[in-house]
Amino acid sequence: MAEGGRRLINRFKLSENFGLWEFHCRCCQTVKIDKKLVDKLQALRDKVGVPLVITSGYRCPSHNKAEGGAPNSYHVKGMAADVVIPEGSTGEELAQAAKELGFTGIGVYSSFVHMDVRPGRYVRFK
Question: What's phi and psi for 21, nearest 5 deg?
Answer without folding.
Answer: -60, -25
